[in-house]
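Record filed here:
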Amino acid sequence: MGAAHRPRPGGRRRRLRRRRQRPPYTPAVASFEHQGHRISFDVYGEGDRPIVLVHGLLMNRRMFDRLAPEMARRGNRVITIDLLGHGRSDRPPEMVHYSMAFFAQQVVGLLDHLGVEQAVIGGTSLGANTSLTVAKDAPDRVKAMVVEMPVLDNALLAVGGIFTPILFGLRFGEPLLRPLAALARRIPRRNFLLDIGLDWIRQDPAPSAAVLEGLFLGAAAPHHNERIQMTQPTLVIGHHADPLHPFSDSGMLAKELPHVRLIEASSILEWRVSPKRLNDELALFLDDVWSGRPVGDGRSEPEAALRESR
């Protein structure tokens, strides 16, 4: 028999030291069941200031890998969700499982699962529209909203022009896209911006096509008459030169909501490449919301947006 293995001196101390050196706010990975499907989410930080962040279309919670820990460091409990058909959540290939209303129900289901009575709900593009839909369908659960790049009335032509060929490609190009997705999943996650793009390719095409089909057949956002009834404090962030997320939609939303702070980003990349200014704006907004200070206090940049939306 060989000699019994003995741990080397100091091994336990080194392991404990490595644990202490683990980066703060490493997410707690979890999931829950909603209407027979698994919905995955991450939690950063803790406390009584919850904010749920919802990703963009055919993206996933990893697009908040930088923002979520930063907001946790600033005293917030940040929850990032993978909606059905995205990321780690189940991805059924039938379109009947997908609609904006269903996505909003999954966010409310997440709050129920966590025992959170009320939270700030926010997101980007699809996530922005999901946040508005939660505020319409379950207003008592929404403390405030963070709406980045909403897709509303002025984006209609761009939505059809951009996503119709994508849907066509996903449906009829599946034999080629499926092995491409498998290959893309083998590429290590090393570059934040590159990975956001690769996440589009890493997904199997059939569930992605079903997501688009379900959204095409239903309401993509609350109607104007429903939006003007919303009273939650809202941070709206938009940018120019983007037909899918026109700044005129952000300006229109700023006119519709009574308690709004409107911020103009320099481009779609600002929050991903040089995030400090927008991180500070979000942190200040969250401080104001949870302390009860008014949000529509003139700190926003409404005039340019209102001119653009006319």
Remarks:
- The longest strand covers residues 37-44.
- The chain has 13 helices and eight strands.
- The chain has one domain: 26-156+219-309.
- The domain at 26-156+219-309 is CATH 3.40.50.1820 (Rossmann fold).
